[in-house]
Amino acid sequence: MLAGIELGGTKVQVLRARGTTVCDRETIATTTPRETLSRVVAVLERWHAQAPIAAIGIGSFGPIRLDRRAPDFGVMLPTPKPGWAGADIFGTLTAPFDCPAMIDTDVNGAALAELRWGAGARGEAPSDSLCYITIGTGVGGGFAFNGHTVHGAMHPEIGHIRVPRAPGDGFAGCCPFHGDCIEGLVSGPALARRFGMPGHEIDPADPRWDDVASDIAHLVATILLGTSARQVLIGGGVGMGRADLLEQVRRKVVALLGGYLPHVDQAGVGRIVTTPLLGDQAGPLGALALAMDALAGESVS
């Protein structure tokens, strides 16, 4: 039995599975660290008493310390989520269990699941590299290359990249750290502030969507040029909720690259810039992928 935990900013999904076959799933609201993590541990302890858990995988919102050599490994770093900075995610969730465990960001986990079982695995030539972007309450990005997630000094934080602004777009952004980074421009809260209403109420014909598409396209072009990822998957409530927006982004990506990447043309961009094949299950399955790697003895860093 494997346990997977997808710790999100609004809810936690806790899974028990044999391989990728999910046997049980429980959803817990994300409140305070003490309340939330203790409820997750209670679920795991109940399952562990029924059948021993062989490994645990944790995909968490961030930023979070992933360097096992660091004294604050598995601890939440400064975050806009009130009360969560300094929370010991890995230690709290794994201390009661004598089994291997692995932690990564939720978007890195989702990227890994898509690489192994989703968009990266379909077609005649499976992908060896992809980026998974989620656009929702925030903007996060994970990378899976050659079967592994990507880390360095930290984990990728593409949500806080600044992009060139569309001419005439005077929206100041809403990121508390950087103002008009990509998260401050296109996340759900940013759209609500930019348009003056929640995203699902915005008229698809509103011309300001063109500025949003431009911002996202600049991010995608930066990723394609900077990492050589074969695919960029755009998920999350905003990312998967507007097919017409995705088409705008694709056209703008091709125009921005100007033919410099010959494989990114109008004929092929639909296969390169696309939605996650696993949909909203990429994150939970990513946590299970991390549990599998923990069982196989792989390191997080």
TrEMBL record:
CDD domains: ASKHA_NBD_ROK_BsFRK-like. It is an enzyme of class 2 (transferase). Its EC number is 2.7.1.4. Its cofactor is Mg(2+). SUPFAM superfamilies: Actin-like ATPase domain. Keywords: Kinase, Magnesium, Metal-binding, Transferase, Zinc. GO terms for molecular function: fructokinase activity; metal ion binding. Pfam families: ROK (PF00480). It catalyses: D-fructose + ATP = D-fructose 6-phosphate + ADP + H(+). This is fructokinase. It comes from Sphingobium indicum (strain DSM 16413 / CCM 7287 / MTCC 6362 / UT26 / NBRC 101211 / UT26S). The gene is scrK.
